[in-house]
Each structure stands twice: as C-alpha cells, then as structure tokens.
Amino acid sequence: MYIHQVAAYLPAEIITNEHFTRLNGLSHEWITERTGIQTRRKAAPGENTNTMALEATRRVLAAAPAFPAAEVDLIVGATYTPHDTIYTLAHAVQRELNVGEIPVVSISSACSSLLNAIEIVEGYFAMGKARRALVVVSEHNTAYNNEQDTMAGHLWGDGAAALLLTPERLSENDLDVRTVLTGGVANVGKADVAVTLKPVEKGIVMPFGKDVFINACQYMARVTQQVLERNNLSVEDVTYLIPHQANLRITKNVLQQLGLPEDRAVSNIQDLGNTGCAGAAIALADTWALLKPGNQIVITVFGGGYSYGAMLLAR
After folding, report:
1. Of the candidates 105, 137, 166, which is a domain's last residue?
2. Which of 2, 47, 74, 151 falls 20 to 30 Å from 231 in CA-CA distance?
3. pTM above 0.85, yes or no
4. Domain Beta-ketoacyl-[acyl-carrier-protein] synthase III N-terminal spans what residues (predicted)?
C-alpha cells in the first residue's frame, strides 16, 4: 500500500496566546511552558469540518495528476468534531467529486483516527474491493471548544488534510506503507472521562490531563517500538518521527523514551495547536517535500477514549 500524495488546509485566522490572556488570564508564558502552543488556527464563519475537508481534497487531487478524481473508489473520512453526524464529511467529499456507488465510510476514534482510517483502506485493498482510496481527516475543534475553560480551552485548533492511497506505486515519490498498528485501551486509567466532547453539555473538556499525558507518552513510545521491531529496524533508522500534535511535552517525553534527538521530530503544535486526528497528517504534508529515498518515517498517535497507533512509511 502506498501514499501517493498528501495535502492540508488551514483556516486563515490565527489566534495567539494573548487572546486567552485577555479572556481568562492565562499568560503566553504559562501556555507555552505547559503545551508548547503559541498560536492556533480558527475556522471562519461559514467554514466547518466538511468545508475544510473539501478544500483539503481539492488540494490533494490538484497535486496528483496521476490520480484522477473519477477513479476514486473508496472514501474514508475521520473526525470527532462533525458538522453533521448523518451527512458526514466523507459523504460531502463524495458529492464534491461526483463519484457514485462507491464505499463511503466515516469513523471516529478520537485523535488516532488517521491510522484507523488508513487501516480500513488496507482492508479494502486486501479484499480487492478498492484500488484508489481517499482518506480525509478534518477537525473543527473551535466549534465545540469552551475558551473560558482554563484547563483545556487554549489547546485546540482547526484544520484538515487529505491523503491518496493505492495498492501499487504510481510514482517514485510515493510512500510505502510498511506497517500500520492500532489499538484501543478504553480499559486503562481514566479513559472514560479524561477527554470528552458532549455537545449538549460543555463541548470539549479535559479534566484529567495528567492521565492523558502519562498514557499518551507510554503508548506512543511502545507502539513505535513495536512497529520498528516488526520491520527489523532500530530507532537509529528513523528519519522523522511524526507524533500526534497534542502537547510538545508529550513529544519530548516520547523522544526521550525512544532515545531520539529532538531534530528527528516533526512538530506543528506550536503554530496550530491540537488539530486532533488531522494534526499528524498536516505534519506529513508539511514534511512531504523534504523526504528523500531511503527515509523511514514513523507516525505515532494517541487519542482520548483511549486509542493509539503507529505507522511506518518508507520512501
């Protein structure tokens, strides 16, 4: 399985930490020290999870002439911040492409959904039910976020990304998907209450951030090691580590556990905040032009609920 192309969309509006200083008294220094976040993006009025997904889709197809929209035969969308839970972002993308009578799936496993979506594609490819897949991840966190919440209100940003996947190589620049490994750990710690989004109540809240931190660090490092071991690789073979963009301290902790220098990690959280399941895909899009033959890339993620995963890519 190969990733042929990836592209991202970010809203234009930039929200600085000073916004929260004015709103609830949290200082730029306090936020940066605890999260690494300096700015984040906010969707404009009229933008939502679906519109951002559509723009990311347009961009990825524009960058991939060898992958015509008419050939898309599987769409997998992922989000935990849907604009509509019935007419999902995946259906919106299908309507945009005007490709009918194909499998269209929308999923949510919190911030690890990117890898679950790719695993679904892997299954369709293995069964011979698809050959041109489009994965779209999009989060409109600010639609649900309570900015007055001093525990988590400053964490969230909006954005989307789209990936094109095939079971055969279309270009020398394609990324070979060597291994995808995911799992759910709803039975550990405070997985049931640590991060929740209840639209009828208060939106996104994170009352047990320490529990999230501990488990994210543990599982992201562990699953990265498992993926490397399955491919007879060591951490020294990793060119880039792309972690879930939740907290810069989590990234640094995972790097320390793995024994990787900080310059191996790709991070966009300082500029974008936590963009949920879109964060790692946006980071991959940012890194795409830097990738060279022989590079080994690991994406490792963790989501509330809890869920985790890692994927090894090679060029």
Report:
1. 166
2. 74
3. yes
4. 107-168
CATH number of the domain residue 262 falls in: 3.40.47.10
Mean pLDDT, all residues of the chain? 97
| pLDDT tens readout for residues 202-212 | 789 999 999 99
Catalytic residue among 244, 247, 253, 277: 244
Name which of 149, 121, 142, 122 is nearest 20 in CA terms. Answer: 149
Say whether 145 is catalytic. no
| From 17, 50, 111, 116, the catalytic residue | 111
Active-site annotation holder among 83, 253, 274, 277? 274
- Range of the structural domain that residue 228 is part of: 175-314
Same-domain status, 194 and 142: no
User: Same domain, yes or no, for 179 and 162?
Assistant: no
Please count the other Cβ atoms lying within 10 Å of the Cβ belonging to residue 145. 26
217 has catalytic annotation: no
Residue 225 is which amino acid? Q
Structural domains counted in the chain: 2
Q: How many residues does the chain have?
A: 315
